[in-house]
């Protein structure tokens, strides 16, 4: 370890120790941006950038587990990204699938990882869509086993989504809810999510024989929230975007109404733990007003 690395390690440790644990976010969203630029700067194929970004995702979830952050949403592939070349998409789909399998099998800090796909799986190649559905089913089975092993909890329930089932997440101690819940936004678009939520709401109302006028009278933000891809989960407290870009690009448009935002210059494969700790420190120092 060089002198600079040692200095960074000491600085990072000092920052980590100073983080107020009671002010840590319960849900972090991340726009993992910059893989292609990283590859271009390194003079390597684009796929190498995506592979480096995939390794960083696994490392990032380790950091979250270590710091006790229970829910993470990763923006991995947008609906707009589906317009890239077939060659790049083929490689990217394979890397995404392998990364999610690796995450699902990992136990960072001894904590299981629950991978929950969010997005329009019908837009994806069937092999990847099938892997994502399988992960959703595995997530539901693991939650059922966890429920059976724990005392009954009136605050917990299972919520059925378009991509499987997920246990409703409530604020609870690390001991009561040891898993790290990782939402992977693949084939995801924020506008499409809202459209899909409204469609599901209307279909449910129709199945109950309720008329359009009745639905319109009862329509509230909360009613729509119940049909989002992430229903049953807390909205993100903090959203981080790497690569220096300062926009959401349609990420969690509905859920981020009161989120705090942090933009980092580092490209995603270069994102370090010290960068993450700085983001958490910045978040902890903010006074959240929730529109007030």
Number of strands: 8
* Biggest sheet statistics: 6 strands, parallel
| SSE string, helices as H and strands as E | HEHHEHEHEEEHHHEEH
Structural class computed from helices and strand pairing: alpha/beta
How does the overall form come out from the CA principal axes? globular
Mean pLDDT: 88
Q: Which residues sit in consecutive blocks of at least 5 with pLDDT less than 50?
A: 168-175
Strand content: 15-25%
The spatial strand order of the largest sheet comes to 3-6-2-1-7-8
Which quaternary structure do these chains form?
Answer: single chain
Helix content: 40-55%
Radius of gyration: 19 Å
Tally of helical segments: 9
Distance N to C terminus: 48 Å
Q: Could you walk me through the main structural features you see in this protein, from its secondary elements to its overall organization?
A:
45% of the residues lie in helices and 15% in strands. By secondary structure, it is α/β, with parallel strands linked by helices. It has a domain at 189-228. The strands form two sheets. A six-stranded parallel sheet has the order 3-6-2-1-7-8, sandwiched between helices. Helix 4 (86-105) runs parallel beside helix 5. It is globular and about 70 Å long. It starts with a helix and ends in a 7-residue tail after the last helix.
């Amino acid at each position: 370890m060089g002198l600079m690395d040692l200095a960074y390690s000491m600085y990072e440790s000092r920052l980590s120790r100073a983080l107020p644990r009671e002010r840590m976010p319960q849900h972090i969203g991340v726009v993992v941006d910059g893989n292609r630029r990283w590859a271009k700067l390194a003079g390597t194929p684009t796929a190498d950038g995506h592979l480096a970004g995939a390794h960083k995702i696994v490392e990032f979830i380790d950091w979250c587990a270590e710091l006790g952050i229970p829910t993470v949403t990763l923006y991995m592939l947008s609906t707009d990204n589906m317009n890239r070349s077939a060659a790049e998409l083929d490689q990217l789909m394979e890397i995404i699938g392998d990364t999610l399998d690796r995450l699902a099998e990992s136990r960072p800090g001894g904590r299981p990882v629950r991978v929950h796909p969010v997005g329009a799986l019908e837009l994806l190649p069937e092999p990847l869509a099938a892997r994502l559905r399988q992960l959703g089913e595995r997530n539901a089975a693991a939650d059922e086993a966890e429920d059976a092993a724990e005392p009954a909890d009136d605050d917990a329930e299972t919520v059925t989504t378009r991509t499987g089932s997920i246990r409703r997440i409530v604020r609870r101690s690390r001991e009561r809810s040891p898993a790290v819940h990782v939402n992977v936004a693949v084939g995801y678009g924020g506008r499409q999510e809202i459209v899909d939520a409204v469609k599901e709401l209307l279909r449910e109302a129709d199945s109950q024989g309720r008329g359009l006028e009745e639905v319109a009278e009862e329509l509230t933000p909360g009613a729509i929230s119940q049909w989002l891809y992430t229903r049953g989960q807390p909205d993100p407290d903090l959203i981080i975007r790497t690569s220096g870009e300062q926009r959401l690009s349609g990420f969690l448009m509905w859920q981020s109404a009161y989120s705090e935002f942090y933009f980092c210059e580092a490209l995603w494969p270069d994102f370090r733990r010290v960068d993450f700790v700085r983001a958490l420190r910045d978040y902890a120092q903010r006074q959240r007003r929730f529109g007030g």
